[in-house]
Amino acid sequence: MPTTESADDDQLGDQLFVLTAVLLTPAQFPSVLGDDYPEVCAGLGLEPYAEGYGLVLGQDGTGARWTVATEDVSLVACAIAAWDCGMEYDLSPGEESIVVALPGWPLALAVATPGIPQPHDPEPQEGDRAPLAPPDAGDWGPAQRRLGADEIALQWVSWRAQVEDEEVSFAEPGEERHRGVRRVLAEARGYLVDPPPPGRVRSSFAAGEARTLRVDGPGWSMVARTDDIAFVLLDDEPGQVHPVGRGPELPGLLASLDGLAARPL
């Protein structure tokens, strides 16, 4: 768990009590914030540097929400790994590594620092940008679609068990099958000719020698295993998940996408 401490009344408002942190790199970023790394960076007012950032979310002594972007990606990655193992880790980026402190949080948090006022946006100063706020994930749209794809990737075994091989088939170009799925597969193939922005195709570890692919595009998301099938989600079809069987072309498409995908270090 992230370590926080109670604040005394005389503590300054610029002291940050860390609640959580996330990575913002071409290979790893909160999908809810955008389809690719440059889009997420633009939403936060950051330059899309290849090395990426760590985002530290916390409160100052007055309870105000702040998001600190640091260049020390390794430090943030170590903290996240420790917290995931149930260990304490004092995440304190050095001042020289801090790029910017942004008001608000880009992600919804259900925790708060004890001993200080409840989380709230800081009082705006003249010329300040609007505080960050989580995307509206209540209604179906890009944020919900990407969250759905992330959930399938995390719960692959459960989702895969719901699909029998004979119930799915690869949507070949020109066939009278689902038009939206055909469009997704065509656009994914287009990435092999005209590579998309960094982070739009991401690859992570899966069972054995397989890889899990997360591929996004305008209005769609795809999650797949390189040794198995794929699932497609569309903005135009709320809550619908379309399985795509391997067929003669999907294995080659997935292998090629994996070849150009961003991978965690």
UniProtKB/TrEMBL annotation:
Compositional bias segments (type: Basic and acidic residues): 120-129
Region annotation Disordered: where it falls in the sequence: 113-143
Name of the protein: Uncharacterized protein
Organism: Streptomyces yunnanensis
Lineage: Bacteria, Bacillati, Actinomycetota, Actinomycetes, Kitasatosporales
